[in-house]
Design brief:
Order of helices and strands: EEEHEHEHEHHHHHEHEHH
Radius of gyration: 17 Å
Oligomer: single chain
Number of domains: 1
CATH topology: Rossmann fold
Number of helices: 11
CATH architecture: 3-Layer(aba) Sandwich
Strand order of the largest sheet: 1-2-4-3-5-6-7-8
CATH superfamily: Alpha/Beta hydrolase fold, catalytic domain
CATH class: Alpha Beta
Length: 265
Amino acid sequence: MPYVLRDGCRLSYSLDGNPQAPALMFSNSLGTTHELWAPQVARLSSAFRVIRYDTRGQGGSDAPKGTYTIEMLGLDALAILDAAGAPRAHVCGLSLGGLTAMWLGVHAPDRVESLILASTAARILNALFWQERIELVKLSGVGALAEASMARWFTEAFRTAHPDTVARYRRMLESSRSEGYASCCAALRDADLRGEIGGITAPTLVIAGSHDPVTPPADADAIRTRIRDAQMTELDAAHLANVEQADEFNERVLAFINEKRPRHG
């Protein structure tokens, strides 16, 4: 995978689809890599230049020590767009990636064609939760989170019906580096965009998993009410709705972008 350097950190990314097609950038959740979006690539790369990347601290990107911030992750995302040669892009983020996408919508509106905010919130859980998570990971490693995380990421029905898929995402989480994971937790601990997202002007679709215990539909509705003309849809899924209901997720994203796509150019 190619990479770009920003502030001394190597950020790994991948490109799929026609370079002349509109850009669609995906931003992944905590404990996952750009492969989180594998269920989207085949369907959406036929219509878009799909940009995926590994958030700093995860996957093939560097994991510099210290506290990460949502601003830092947002600036990383802009560096990825620059490296991909994309002046503007539709931006789809899930959980932590959704917060990154919202930051872009607030602070870099000229780079955002539309936003798809999946399984996320303007404030995800609370500072105490994330501080306890940081301390646990530093003490016991990311593997200590795996079993409980799978129960949050996927419904029981999906875990029973698709054990191979669940195992693949569990391995993705378990391969996370503790230092990078904890640093991303710090970004989640400190990020609160509830007072800012009302300034977002990009067309926005909010996607919630009906059974998501991390960012339930109430969180999605709170985003919808704060962003002017935002749309909201629910899928029969837990936290990783893009995996559990991949076909439905893809079709709703495609329909939304096609509806909101500018008619010029």
